[in-house]
Request: fold
Amino acid sequence: MSNDGRRKFLKGIGLGSLVMSVGSYGVVANKPTTDKKSKHYAMIFDQNKCVGCTDCEIACAKVNKVPKGQFRMIIEDKTDPKKPRERRMVRVSCQQCVEAPCVQVCPSKACHRDNLTNIVTMNADDCIGCLYCIVACPYNVRFVNEETHAAENCNFCENTNLKEGKDPACIEACKYEAIVFGDLNDEKSKINRILKIKDSLRMKPELGTKPSLRYIPAVRLGV
Ligand code: SF4
Ligand code: SF4
Ligand code: SF4
Reply:
């Protein structure tokens, strides 16, 4: 993403607060829900693997037809300039909260949770443009699509790649396997295997929103 594009995105949806809040990660135990009737799609972003190439951003915008200059996700480079060898990338996108304030406040139910996949998603035709969901999101990651005039978020490519039986576009595009996607209700899924052996973090766990997006923090190896 160009610097101009990134600035426009950050300004447009006010992501600064989320980026600054990365320090408030909290370690969580891996306790996937066990309801077998539906899926519970979730995602892991591994800071140890992401190199900041931004291929995922480009693929997401293309597949989901996000207007030029707007993005459902970005990768922020939070590397300390004094420690350039300690790369630290942060995925900024909808956290796919289990307790989602955006869903709770939407008067038209345009912003809703899909009951088969547990994905927080949108029905653009029902959006009345009240912006309640955008105000309610504590992660500041919702935005109004300039073409559809409806609020939207990363919905794990529910209406595009997922519908076609493919992985989300960001995962398809990542050559470094920095993103993992899967069903927490499937005990044998890759995402559950990874969560069983690695500590993961959630953004702002103190809010009780229970994000389904997890972060594996960068591990610094001494020499
Ligand atoms: S494509 Fe993969 S490595 Fe590149 S920025 Fe996205 S997550 Fe990071
Ligand atoms: S991160 Fe924001 S937009 Fe996404 S589910 Fe949570 S409250 Fe809704
Ligand atoms: S899951 Fe889909 S909508 Fe979400 S960031 Fe990845 S490509 Fe974009």
In short: The two ends are 34 Å apart (CA to CA). Confidence is low (pLDDT under 50) at residues 1-33. The chain has seven helices and eleven strands.
